[in-house]
């Protein structure tokens, strides 16, 4: 069942399959599972199937340097998928414990669905959070996705879970969720969340998206540096000149702050302001950053943003203190310390461009963290590499995540990737123009920026209110079943 549920996500993209799989899971739980151990193992197996197929692309980074790293692939894959599956196993187990003596099947399934939704919420926040692969992202192209403009992707995810598990069980709580889902779908069908073409435009920004499609295995080879820069410049240097050129994450392999002559050379060729990704090394504190640089037409650095949310085990090791103590990797600074985190999400302002929020790769996952910073922005820029992800579902899933940030904040988003998919995404999350996966090219797009961007309700209620409100909504029915329902049974037996 978990394997089948994964077909809701990219690259299969069959979201409505959710409402076939989850009701069937409910049926099998009631028919087949009796003991707490069975619930635990079944939840774990359900997760293994879902996460195992959804994240099969996680093996790809180990195939870049195949002879050296292939032995790590099965271990990393198993540990990663198992750790995510543990959340689902715990949800199944706790639902059995809470409803051990319950005879009403409707209550059993409703309890399971709520605890399952809580487990998914915790997965999005605990241990730095990993909100990739939640079901709501699979629904980005459906009318019901308008819900994220009201309460965001996490509450939307909980609604999908609860409606799915309880689709064929009728009770007051279940019916309320179903009615909300139906009303949301109807509103979405009426396109009430689409951008208003009659809004007054304050300015138009012409942007050139550059996708060099450089293979990951060749990316960091010193002998390829000049060839790769030539590819980027050739794709950028076309007439008419845009207001801005954007290159992807880690486009250059040298340190821009220490190579002003190279920046000047690039600026002379591109002849437009340029945003690109590169490494930044602070020699005072010996910290390495994954950064975004903005340079003007003269090659002068106008703005720098250091990536805040780093990829665990990809850009940093969460247990680096333990690794140093055990002398793993021979205490190599680069391997153990990896990248350092920046000081927080920051707008690029007063740069001659409309205010923008830069996001580097993985940072597009963190919906709530973006809310507080995006209010003064006119648009979002997401630069990424994605060559690590291979040709399967990874790049497409990553694209859907970025699209959700545009929809929930009612703001246009530009996405520029090394090997795809680079795109202009409208404020309603629609892909307007794009460069396909694994294709080299450039794309000129025009952003029509509003005089005043209307904030969504989700953007207004804020990070903490949304998260705490969500958790409270989920815990209230559990509190009822664990306290009031048990008290009622006690009174009846007495």
Summarize the SSE layout with pairings.
Blueprint: H1 2-5, H2 18-32, H3 36-54, H4 66-69, H5 72-98, H6 105-125, H7 148-165, H8 172-189, E1 201-211, H9 216-219, H10 225-236, E2 244-246, H11 260-270, E3 274-282, E4 287-295, E5 301-306, H12 320-325, H13 333-337, E6 356-360, H14 367-374, E7 379-384, H15 393-409, E8 413-417, E9 422-425, E10 431-435, E11 441-450, H16 457-461, H17 463-493
Parallel strand pairs: 1-2, 2-3, 6-7, 7-8
Antiparallel strand pairs: 1-11, 3-4, 4-5, 8-9, 9-10
Helix pairs in contact: 2-7, 3-5, 5-6, 6-7, 6-17, 7-8, 7-15, 14-17
Explained architecture:
The protein is α/β, with parallel strands linked by helices and 494 residues long. It folds into 2 domains: 2-193 and 462-493, no CATH class; 201-308 and 343-457, 4-Layer Sandwich (Nitrilase/N-carbamoyl-D-aminoacid amidohydrolase). Helices cover 46% and strands 15% of the residues. The strands form 2 sheets. It has a 6-stranded mixed sheet with strand order 5-4-3-2-1-11. The two termini are 42 Å apart.
């Amino acid at each position: 069942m978990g394997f089948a549920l994964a077909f809701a996500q990219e690259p299969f993209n069959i979201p409505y399959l959710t409402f076939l799989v989850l009701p069937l899971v409910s049926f099998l739980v009631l028919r087949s599972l009796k003991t707490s151990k069975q619930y635990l193992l079944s939840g774990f197996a359900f997760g293994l199937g879902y996460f195992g197929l959804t994240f099969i692309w996680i093996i790809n980074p180990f195939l870049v340097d195949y002879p050296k790293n292939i032995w790590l692939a099965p271990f990393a894959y198993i540990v990663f998928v198992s750790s995510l599956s543990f959340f689902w196993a715990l949800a199944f187990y706790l639902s059995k414990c809470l409803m051990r003596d319950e005879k009403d099947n409707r209550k059993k399934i409703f309890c399971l669905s709520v605890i399952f939704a809580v487990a998914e919420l915790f997965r999005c926040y605990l241990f730095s959070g990993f909100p990739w692969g939640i079901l709501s992202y699979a629904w980005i192209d459906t009318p019901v996705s308008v819900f994220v403009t009201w309460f965001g992707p996490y509450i939307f995810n909980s609604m999908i879970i609860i409606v799915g598990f309880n689709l064929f069980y009728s009770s007051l709580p279940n019916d309320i969720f179903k009615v909300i889902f139906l009303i949301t779908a109807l509103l979405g069908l009426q396109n009430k969340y689409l951008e208003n073409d009659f809004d007054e435009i304050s300015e138009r920004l012409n942007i050139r998206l550059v996708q060099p499609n450089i293979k990951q295995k060749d990316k960091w080879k010193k002998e390829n540096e000049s060839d790769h820069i030539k590819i980027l410049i050739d794709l950028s240097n076309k007439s008419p000149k845009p207001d801005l050129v954007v290159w992807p994450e880690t486009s250059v392999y040298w340190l821009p702050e220490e190579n002003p002559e190279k920046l000047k050379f690039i600026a002379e060729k591109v002849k437009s302001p340029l945003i690109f990704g590169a490494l930044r090394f602070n020699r005072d504190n010996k910290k390495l950053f994954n950064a975004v640089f903005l340079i003007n037409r003269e090659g002068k650095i106008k703005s720098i943003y250091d990536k805040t949310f780093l990829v665990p085990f990809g850009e940093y090791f969460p247990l680096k203190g333990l690794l140093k103590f055990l002398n793993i990797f021979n205490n190599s600074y680069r391997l153990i310390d990896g990248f350092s985190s920046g000081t927080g999400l920051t707008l690029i302002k007063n740069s001659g461009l409309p205010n923008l929020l830069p996001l580097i790769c993985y940072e597009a996952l963190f919906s709530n963290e973006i809310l507080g910073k995006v209010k003064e922005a006119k648009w979002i820029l997401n630069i990424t590499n994605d060559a690590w992800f291979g040709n399967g579902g990874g790049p497409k899933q990553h694209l859907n995540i970025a699209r959700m940030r545009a929809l929930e904040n009612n703001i246009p988003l530009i996405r520029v990737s090394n090997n795809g998919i680079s795109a202009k995404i409208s404020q309603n999350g629609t892909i307007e123009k794009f460069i396909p996966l694994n294709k080299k090219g450039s794309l000129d797009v025009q952003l029509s920026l509003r005089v005043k961007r209307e904030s969504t309700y989700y953007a207004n209620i804020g990070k903490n209110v949304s998260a705490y409100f969500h958790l409270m909504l989920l815990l209230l029915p559990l509190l009822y079943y664990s306290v009031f329902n048990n008290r009622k049974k006690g009174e009846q037996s007495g």
